[in-house]
Amino acid sequence: MPIQEKVEKISLKKLHYAVMTDETTEEHGEVKTMNMPIELTLTPNFSEGTFDAGDQVVANEVQLDTITLAGQVADLPSEVQADWYGHQLSDDKGVIMNTNDTPNYLAIGFESGSKLVWLFKAKIRPTEESNATKKKGEIAYKQSGFSGEVIPLADGTLKHTIRTTDPLVTETPTTFFATVKKPVVTPTP
Question: How far apart are CA 176 and CA 26, in angstroms?
């Protein structure tokens, strides 16, 4: 039977996240949504090994270890910075950056075209901040960047992707991003 292929348009509609509330049980808190993502790049990282014998390669292993992520959003509100980077909010709701801050583990979710994706255990950090004077006759916009690493859950899971255009898929963005839920696989008898 031929495989049904479809062309995907470039798209990044929303960015969802939830702070991991318990590392032992790998549970996450409330899902929060950011409506103005600009870009998100995922780069898989592999460990590789080869075994040479008799003047040739006789075995080769490749293992997915982590996923590096980098992104840009239109804005990082103070609440998001506190959630992501472990910063504290002052009484007047300012962000306090301290050398003792520890970033939280996060689940990061996003919708790209027909793909719905959850990354389950990421720690991210801000990228450089740039400030410049306004120039006469020009309008410039500022973006907030971040980067980080997605590490596996205890069972090895890094990422779960659903394509809403695949046959028999009933998941929607609303249901998929309502909570952070791990994928379920029913064993075949």
Answer: 18
The C-alpha atoms of residue 43 and residue 150 are separated, in whole angstroms, by 10
Strand partners, 43: 68
- Domain locations along the chain: 17-47+64-129+140-167
pLDDT given at position 178: 96
Question: Taking the CA of residue 150 as centre, how many other CA atoms within 13 Å lie in the half-sphere pointing to its CB?
Answer: 22
Q: Which of 30, 140, 150, 145 is nearest to 76 (CA)?
A: 145
Residue 65 to residue 185: CA distance in whole angstroms: 21
Average pLDDT over residues 31-47: 93
Q: Which long-range contacts (CB under 8 A, 24 or more apart) does 58-66 make?
A: 64/158, 65/152, 66/149, 66/150, 66/151, 66/152, 66/158
Element at 175 (helix H, strand E): helix 173-176
Residue 189: per-residue pLDDT: 76
CA separation for the pair 61, 54 (Å, rounded) = 18
pTM comes to 0.85
Of 106, 116, 102, 94, the closest CA to residue 8 belongs to 116
